[in-house]
Request: fold
Amino acid sequence: MNVNRRGGLAAATMKNERIRPLENESIRHDRQRRETIMLEAVSRREFIKTAATLATGCPTLLAADSANATNPEQLVKTVADAVLRDFRNTPRFNWGEGVMLAGMMQAYQLTRDRRYLNFVTDFANHWHRKGIGPTLEKRGYCGHWGPGLALLMLHETTGDQPSLDLVNRINDFMLHKAERTKDGGLSHFNGKPQLWVDTLDMCCPVLSHAARVTNQLKLQQEAIRQLEIFAKHLRDPATGLFYHMWDQQTGKHTPEFWARGNGWVCMSYTEVLMNEKPDSPARTRLTEPFAKLLAAVAGLQDKTTGLWHTVLDAPDTYREASATAMFLYAMSQCRNRSLIEIPYHNTMARAWAGLARTVDSKGRVTQVSAGTGPSDKAGYIAVKRGTYTWGTGAFLLAAVAYQETKLKRNS
Reply:
């Protein structure tokens, strides 16, 4: 990952103008002016209605018309500071913490606040001393590979050797010890040959960025191979969207398009393409399905809130923040790095506006669904929402990437 990516949004805020009394309007203004004033009032009512919809079921949110509510750098600081308050002890070596740590690295790149960098450095030093061997062996669970991306970002920033040592341990486990399906897909955990879309983002970014950092082409080839194996079993050819899980024993996949699952896929494609040569055959093979996936995702956004429903094509399911952040991150990085054409300016602007309003007054990202196993529609609806590490990290990644998009657009 290019750790110097900077992003966010200097979104336009609505004017808080007061509508003047109309008692002498017929004398001072013509009919056209009166109609203009009425339209402005309607617009304000619609804005209030939208903000109320976004706030449903959330803690007290940042005021929609506050200067800080949509200021990306301020929101990044607010959320990252909340992480420091909430994690006074070393985080676990697990997938959600990995996303959060990657977000903290990007927060450092944007703000140059060394507290964020030190947070990740302390994590690396702690786990290097303690060792991750037993953690990796525990059920062979792919979630324990996830922190590798943040560790690579740390190594690229500081030259930190303990972080690279940990990454090498993770990659060795993935390549030589992790269980696989018959065609080589990495199982979500030992004992059951199943492909979960979550697994892609635990393995592909780590393999791909390590390939560039350590100059090991085989790691990039393995990342691409995983994307293609998972797509063979989980991608819906009609829509380009991905199902959550495929089971080798039954040969069947789950029935729904889970939003965060497709977010994991979008981020995986993004990270791998960032490290692939522009004219390579592999890049060409990956670009077409990824572009179709993003087009399908963009068309399913809830236009009122800017968020996506937890079951993408089911408007009666709740709107979810972490998936929204992942989609915004992928679209922003694709545009920033010229990976594929992204004609979704309005989609991205709505997504950022919606995400900004999920940050509560304590700096915590809300409306994030809890850990989610493969299920049907009713099962996804039943998953509770709150503040979780993966949502916090995805928010930070999206905010930094989108700011770069906005800066480039305005330059």
